[in-house]
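Sanity check record (used in CI):
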Amino acid sequence: MTFIKSISTFISLMTLFFSFSLHANFEEQEKRVFEQTRTEALNHNAQAQYQLAEMYLMGTGVEKNLFNAQLWANEAIKNNYADAYALLADLYLFNTDPYFKNHYVDARKLATTAANKGSIRGKISLATALIAPLSGETDYKKAIALLEEAAATHQPELVYAPIWLGVLYSGVGNVPVDTEKANMWFAKANEITFEGFAQAMASFMFSGQYHIIEPNKQKADELMKQACEEAKKVGNEFYCQQAFN
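Expected output for SEL1-like repeat protein:
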C-alpha cells in the first residue's frame, strides 16, 4: 500500500463512524472546500496551492491525481512554501518505481530543503529518505532524531512520525530491535488516530509494497495481527479481515 493509499485507508476508516447520509454530506462539503481552495490557488495563494496538491494526492473532494498533485506542489514551491517541498518528496518516495532511482535521490534533496525551511512535515520526509537506501546513504540515528522532534508535537497530521519510530524499533537497518520502544510509539500513534492503526500502517511498511525499507513478511504478518487485536478491544474488526491477513 502506498503512502497515498495508507492515508486513504485512514480516511475510509474514519467514515465508518458516520451514517450514509452524513457521509454524503461530508463528501459534498469536501467538494466545496476543494473548489474554494482551487479558486484561491489560481490566485497564487501559496498555502492554497499546497493544500490543493494535498487534495489531489489524497483524493479529497476530487478524484485522486498524482500528476496534478505534483503540478500544484511545484506551484507552491515556486512561492517558497516549505511544506510543498515535503509533499513532493513524499510523492516521489512512496509512488515511484525503484527503477527510477533519481526520483528517490531528488526526494531526499526536496525533504532536506523542506526541513531546513522549518517544515515539520519536512522532518518526517527527510527521516523517511534517510532510511531509504534508494535515496542514498542511510542515517538511522539522524532519522530517529528528526522523527522524535516531529512526534513531540502530538499533531494528528504528523502521525507518521511515531509510526516510523515504531517501525524502526521493530528492527530496521542497524537499529536494534526494542519491542518496548516500538510498542510505546505505536501506542502514541494510536492515541491520536484509533486502536490498531499504527500497527496496520507498520505492517504495510514491512509488506514489500513500499520501497523504503527491506520487506519482512514475518514482521508484516505479526504487526497486522497486533493491529487486529488492538482494534478488537474497541469492537473494530476491520484489520481482522482476510484481505489483511
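DSSP finds twelve helices and no strands in the chain. If this sentence no longer matches the regenerated C-alpha cells, the check is flagged for review.
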